[in-house]
Amino acid sequence: MTPLGWVVAALAFGIGMLAGALVLRRSAKQEVVARTLVPHRTRQVIAALQSGAVIVRPDRRAAFSNHSASSLGIARPDGALHAGVADLAERAWRTGEVVEEEIEVRRGVLGALTQVHVRVTPIDTELALAVANDNTEQRAAEATRREFAVNVSHELKTPIGALSLLAENVEDASDEPELVRQFAVKMRREARRLTKLIQEIIEISRLQGGESVLDHEEVDVAGVIHEACEGARLAAENRRIELVTDVRVRPVVLGDRDLLVMAVRNLIDNAIAYSDPGARVTASVTAKDDAVSVAVLDQGIGIDASDQERIFERFFRTDPARARETGGTGLGLSIVKHVALQHSGAVTVWSQPAVGSTFTITLPGYEGSQ
Ligand code: ADP
Description:
This protein starts with a helix and ends in a 6-residue tail after the last strand. Helix 6 (about 175-205) packs parallel to helix 11 (about 330-340). Strand 11 and strand 12 form a beta hairpin. About 50% of the residues lie in helices and about 20% in strands. It contains 11 helices and 12 strands. The strands form 3 sheets. Strands 2-1-5-4-3 form a 5-stranded antiparallel beta sheet. It is an alpha+beta fold. It binds adenosine-5'-diphosphate.
């Protein structure tokens, strides 16, 4: 190395050592501050908390903070404090009262923005305690619940509106028995639609409740397919659809038989509703590599690629007018998705407009299944 090289290397080494020493000094200083201001026991309690907890000082720094506070992005172990928390602490000291607020925190440089709920309690003039929790998921769940409630009331309005209109028609046509009979038939259809809608709303709320609703029993999947087909047989005959099963294996899964029958039945009902008379619908089962797949194949109208992601959303219909004709609620596939998820499985779709669709529910096989 040239003499200049040695000088540069020595300088770089010196600067590195200095920076290291400064960092060490800073964290040592922080340690001393923490020890002086926050007693050992208190620090142990704070460290054990699941929530993010920070002891805030009037110089807008943290005297002590726990690991969760770092993960939440509101305080660092070197004492750096999120400006939003420092502002809250200043307000708490000023008013002498507990203050709480949602603050937006970005985790990491490119991390996503999260909503953190922070509650600051002034302890004395020197210290305040900030306790923080991530509310992002809770807020998203609340927003979904609100949206669901709005959609439900909107969906209920249609059949209820139709029923009250039909009732008025019956009143007006009281002297014409034939007309009354026709309105009564329509009223029965609307009442059936309403019943189905309410049953499906109850079902989806139960499935999405967050907890497992499964009865864990050994379920013969071939039996599930046969029962679902039997239930749909009349609808198939009415629409002149040939409904066939292709069951060459008898795999077993662990789960809830009634829910599985309901999911497969929903797929078959759709396959029938979205096919033209004369078409064939096939329900089959296969078992491979510890996975059991139930497929429902149709030769119906198919689904545009752009809609294929959205059809599993609640109340989504590609063609609301046709759905109204078929009595669709827009909840069927959402129920199928949640039944599959509850069984640690998934549902997928292959579809091409004017060719047909295949919906496949894949579930983990149970020991002993073939
Ligand atoms: P719906 O009660 O309206 O049938 P689903 O949740 O079961 O509600 O289905 C959502 C939408 O997906 C339907 O409105 C329809 O547009 C489309 N869809 C579902 N299954 C099929 C299918 N087999 N063929 C064509 N389109 C389908």
